Amino acid sequence: MRTIIARNAHQAMAESCFQLDSFGVTDEDGGKVLPIPTASTILMPLERVALYPALEPFDALLGGARDLAEGRMAHVGFCAEALKKDPATRVTLRPTGECDSIGVVYIQVDLDGKIMLMACSSTTDVVLEYADLVYLSMVMEYVATTAKREPGALWHTSMRPSCREAMLAKVTDIGAHAPQPPNPFVDPYSAGKLTNTIPLLSIPRGRYDRELKQFFSNDTYDSVDYIDPFIQHVLAPAHRAYRLYLEDAAVPVVQRAIGEISAQDWMQACLLWVTHTTTPAPDTACTPPAE
Questions:
Q1: Architecture (CATH level 2) of domain 2-175
Q2: DSSP per-residue string spanning 112-171
Q3: Which residues of the chain are in CATH 3.30.572.10 domains?
Q4: Order of strands across the sheet with 32-33?
Q5: CA nearest 189: which of 47, 14, 58?
Q6: Would you say residue 289 has pLDDT above 80?
Q7: 2 φ, ψ to 5°?
Q8: By CB neighbour count within 10 A (0-12 exposed, 13-18 middle, 19+ buried), where does 48 fall?
Q9: What is the number of H-type helices and E-type strands within the chain?
Q10: What is the pLDDT of residues 167-178, one digit of tens each?
């Protein structure tokens, strides 16, 4: 088994892509696959943003929060309350849908009193794994906050890390950022360029669950004043900015909308990705398109 020990998602993605790019073998569809399983240990999972132009941050952020709202893993809230009442509880979560990229999730309190999480997958696309890591870190923070404990390490194991042919260039690009020993990995968080500024959950869990479901259940998200800061100041402006991007608004318009995202790490990732994937147009009419 190949092992990866990383501080955060930014480091983990580079190391995972480097290993597949360097040691993967070509599969029958022209992609690559690692012939042995891989286990990744992420020591600071709440540093969940990977700052690479090749990785799409809107899908990771909004998709992870949507999965949390819609119950991708069954009974997360119930299990969090169980851990709060009895730290000796051993939690097992399974996906509610079929063919999920995550097979099973185990959560418990470690010897230091922190929440630890381990996810197991039968197969993993190393590029799409980023969205799974964001979601798993959200589950971990949700459980830790509810149980009134600090988050510990996150483990993710995959029997078959792989990548489709169309994604190979992204794997090479991201993997090139992995330093060669003995050089240390200086990532944006450890360098002080990124900070996780807004907690995922700041209000009572029941109210938070209702607000999160409301956010994803209707189209009036931007006309609602949510109490939770993460929903109001991170998800809502990210949703608005992404909608403008999909509607082909002028790049400066999208960039200004991204600037409304209060979480500094997500804002920087969204700006980087939009700047990388679009060609700036003249700022002649910097107003959002009509609804």
A1: 2-Layer Sandwich (3.30)
A2: TS-EEEEEEES-EETTTHHHHHHHHHHHHHHHHHHHT--EEEEEEEES-EEE-GGGHHHH
A3: 2-175
A4: 25-26, 32-33, 161-163, 124-125
A5: 47
A6: no
A7: -85, 140
A8: buried
A9: 10, 10
A10: 999 999 999 999
